[in-house]
Amino acid sequence: MAQRQSKDQRSYRTSVVIVGTGFSGLGMAIKLKQAGIEDFIVLEKAADLGGTWRDNTYPGCACDVPSLMYSFSFEQNPNWSRMFARQGEISDYLQHCADKYRVRDHIHYGVEFSGAEYDEATQTWRVSTADGSEYVGKALVSGVGALHIPSYPELPGVQDFEGEVFHSAEWNHDFDLAGKRVAVIGTGASAIQFVPQIAKKVAKLHLFQRTPPWIQPKPDRPVPEALQRLFRRVPLVQRAARAALYWTLEARYFAVFNKHLGKLSEHLSKRYIRKAVKDPEVRAAVTPDYSMGCKRILLSSDYYPALNRSNVDLVTSGVAEVRKNSVVTGDGQEHPVDAIIYGTGFHVTDAFDHLTIVGRDGRKLQDAWRNGMEAYLGVAVSGFPNLFFLLGPNTGLGHNSVVFMIESQLNYVLGALRGICRGKVAQLDVRQSVQDDFNSEIQSELGDAVWSAGGCRSWYLDENGVNRTIWPGFTWKYWLRTRKVDPADFEITAARGR
């Protein structure tokens, strides 16, 4: 187990420092335990584990990936109550995993990661935290993820607003929305889940839309108890169902990456709009004018019907300013409100900008990513030895379960950590040429997808309009590339005495 060096110094030494306890960080801890490696510490800024499924507790919060695929392959859950699990069940699943694989003792709660510096003399990472503690490890694994830093729009005058203001990821459950006049800013993945829920309670809901999302019906329904019992008694049946679902989701790749087949999906979604939205003006306002797949495709069967309610007002003229008790739009209309709720998503392509991570020769990660974040296989960055990212650049998905990608990365990183933890390898640093070739290939493939079309604006893209978020292909291809570490891809330094 990791050892605390001194009570006064508040310094800890270990083989591996893992940051975060969502699917990525928790999964890495489990994989180390399964490999017989006990010398690691997991840093968690909150008082409990769970990552985004701990933080996001807004009404209606649920996954838009079917439950059977939104879990580890080595720990499948036969007890999902719905086809698309809700936040509470996913949070409980992660708690179950932490207990079953005995990783809780490795977690340091209330410790916020603030940066890290590679010490070339000792070939270790010195990790700094917000409370002044220091963690020294041979390797550093970032399981931070992209969807954890809420993005707030800059609205003139919002600091003078006298009502309640909060982000969907920081939901204020103490504030009673019943009978209130509420402004919702944004119509992304979170908003389309909580808007139908709060529309039933509020007196008036002003929904401010900048860009309408593509939405498809969500085929959600309860999982029959008989099927749950079958999964428990015959796990092979659940594995077969999961495999069938995996390949069904893989087929969605064509809707995202093939411009011609994507037109068929657009046609079906437009037909859904015509069927679900009564008002012709609202119908026109919620119909996207960009190619499907440019932005995240959303699933909901109750969002459009919520727009038919008499107390819901869809506003598309943009927010000009916020006053003490109202929101004023670009056309001069003033909308009196008691609360403002942001459904404006998260920082993604700039998620690491607030951290100071320094690699070899004093090179900062921000400098390495000056022209856009990139990594080999989304995992390793040249010049930053023994630093591994989980769900790093270009490993997000628009068609399948991101947990599948995480698990592929866990196995790959574990292959690199074995030699480090067992004292055979001092450092692995991916070759710059290998990283460059990989990212040239990635961007070439992305150039043929929907994001290359003019007018595409999305959180998938960085400030230069380059997609730094999505994996441009089938997930089974990524799995093949991450099955084992190729030593030729790295500059490897053997441990002293080896």
TrEMBL record:
TM segment ranges: 12-30
Pfam families assigned: Pyr_redox_3
Extent of the signal sequence: none
UniProtKB keywords: Membrane, Transmembrane, Transmembrane helix
InterPro entries, per the entry: FAD-bind_Monooxygenase_sf, FAD/NAD-bd_sf
Protein name: Cation diffusion facilitator CzcD-associated flavoprotein CzcO
Organism: Saccharopolyspora antimicrobica
